[in-house]
Design brief:
Elements (H helix, E strand, L loop, with lengths): L7 H7 L8 E2 L9 E7 L3 H10 L7 E4 L9 H4 L16 E4 L7 E4 L21 H11 L6 H11 E3 L23 E5 L5 H13 L18 E4 L1 E2 L1 E2 L2 E2 L9 H4 L4 E4 L3 E10 L3 E10 L7 E11 L2 H11 L2 E2 L1 H6 L6 E2 L16 E2 L7 H5 L2 H14 L11 E5 L23 E5 L11 E2 L2
Parallel strand pairs: 1-12, 2-3, 2-15, 3-12, 6-7, 16-17, 18-21
Antiparallel strand pairs: 4-5, 7-9, 8-19, 10-11, 13-14, 14-15, 19-20
The structure holds flavin-adenine dinucleotide.
Flavin-adenine dinucleotide binds next to helix 2, strand 13 and helix 8.
Length: 440
Amino acid sequence: MFWYPPLLILVNALLPRPTQCALLERFEDLKRNDFDFVIIGGGTAGNTVANRLTENPNHHVLVLEAGGSNANAFVSMIPNFCARTLGSAIDWNYTAQTGPVMNRVVGLPRGFVLGGTSSMNCMAYTRGTREDWDRYAHVTNDAGWSWDNIQTYVRKNERFTPPADGHDTTGEFDPSVHSFDGINSVTLSGFRHQVATRVIQASKAMGNDSEFRFVLDMNSGEHLGIGFAQSTVLNGTRSSSATSYLGPQFINRPNLHVLLHAHVTRISSEETAHNGLTFTGVELSQDSGKTLHTVTASKEVILSAGSIATPQILMNSGIGDPNTLSNLGIRTLQRLPSVGRNLSEHLVLTLGWVVTANDTDSEAARNATLAAEQLRQWNETRTGPLVDAPDLDFGWVRLPKNASIFERVKDPSPGPNTAHIEIQFLVSIFPAEFRIIIPH
Ligand SMILES: Cc1cc2nc3c(=O)[nH]c(=O)nc-3n(C[C@H](O)[C@H](O)[C@H](O)COP(=O)(O)OP(=O)(O)OC[C@H]3O[C@@H](n4cnc5c(N)ncnc54)[C@H](O)[C@@H]3O)c2cc1C
C-alpha cells in the first residue's frame, strides 16, 4: 500500500535498541504465576495502569500483551511514518462490515504490539473540550469526570517538551494550560512545512469573528478555530505508552512483569455460595491455543485489550448476551446483553490539494535519494521532515445551527463551543482510495 525507501531495512538493523530487560518472551521465564493485579493488554491504557500500580512496591503486576516488543517496530518509531503502520505486522488487521449506508468492508486498524494503538496511531494530542468532559460527568453522575477534575490526571500524564528543531515556541501554545513534569511527552512541530505556516497565517488574517480564526491552544478546553498541532512525540520519536509508561526508568521495577506474545483467551472464575462469582485469574496461550497457561490475580484482573478484544474476552469468559453466548457454546456466568454491541467509529475523508510548496511528502515519494537522505538525517540527528506526526495544524469547526442534517439528527455535540468537524492539515501521503485531488 505504501512506498518504502530501499534503505529502510538496512537502517533498521543499525538503529539503537532501547534496553527493556524486563520484557519476557516466554511464559516459562515468568518468576511467579500469582500476582496482585493482572492486566490484559499492554496497550495505551494497560501500560499506564501498570506504571501507576507498580508505584507501590508491594503490588506485583503482570501485563499480558498479545503482540511483540515495540523496540523492533521501526515504522512505529518515526512519527512521519504513522500511516505505514496501517496493515503492517504491528496491526491486528481487523476488518469490519459497515452498516447499510456505506455497505462495504473496511480496515479497522488496532495496534498488535507493546504500546497497543499508541504505537501505531497518528500521535495527535487533543484533549477534547470542557463541554465534552462536563457531559461525561453529567451522564455518569460522577463529578470526577468533569473538565476541572480531570486536569489533575491530564497533568500527571503530560510532559510538554521542546520541538525537535529547538525553535522558540512562543505564540504556538499556551504554557499555562500544560504540564512539564508528567510521563508522556507532548510537543509542537519540529520541522515547519510551508503549507502549515500558510494555514496559520491565513487563519490569523481571517480575524476573530471567523470560524477559521486562530486559536492559540486547542487543548485549553475551548478549541474552535485553527491552531498548531500538538503531538505525542519526544525528540523526534514517537512517545507511546510503551516508550513512556514502560520507559527505561520504569521497566526494571522488580514488581513489574511484562509477558509478550501472550494471547489471553479468557478470564477464569470461581463461583461459591458464599462469595458468588469471583474472577480469579487469566488463561493465556503462546502457541495459538495448543498449550493453555493460567496466572492468578489476588486483587484485580484489569481488562484493557481495546475496543474489539475487550468484549471478545468478556464473552469468552461467559459475560455477555445469553443468546449469543449459547450459540457459541459458552455458558453464561453474567448476563450483560450490551457486551459487544454499540461500537461506533469515525470516518476520515481525505481531500488532496495540489500545492506549489516543494516540501511536501510527495517530493520524497518520487525521489528515492531524497527519501534516503531524510531517513539518514532522522536516524543520525532526530531532525528533519520525519520528526513530525502527519498532522501539522488542526481546525475545529461547527456546522451552522440551521444545517439541514439537524432536521433528521439530534446535534451530537455537547455544547456550542465544541466542534462537529475536525480538520487535519497534512503534507503526507495517504492511500489513493482516500484521495480526491482538487487542482489549484
Ligand atoms: C490508525 C489510528 C490512528 C489514531 N490516531 C490517533 C491520534 O492521532 N490521537 C489519538 O489521541 N488517538 C488516536 N487514535 C485512537 C487511539 O490510539 C486509541 O483510542 C487508543 O490507543 C486505544 O487505547 P486502548 O488502551 O483502549 O487500546 P490499545 O492501545 O489498542 O491496547 C489494547 C492492547 O491489547 C492487546 N490485546 C488485544 N487482544 C489481546 C489478547 N487477547 N491478549 C492479550 N493482549 C491483547 C493489543 O495487542 C493491544 O496492545 C488512533 C487510532 C487508530 C486506529
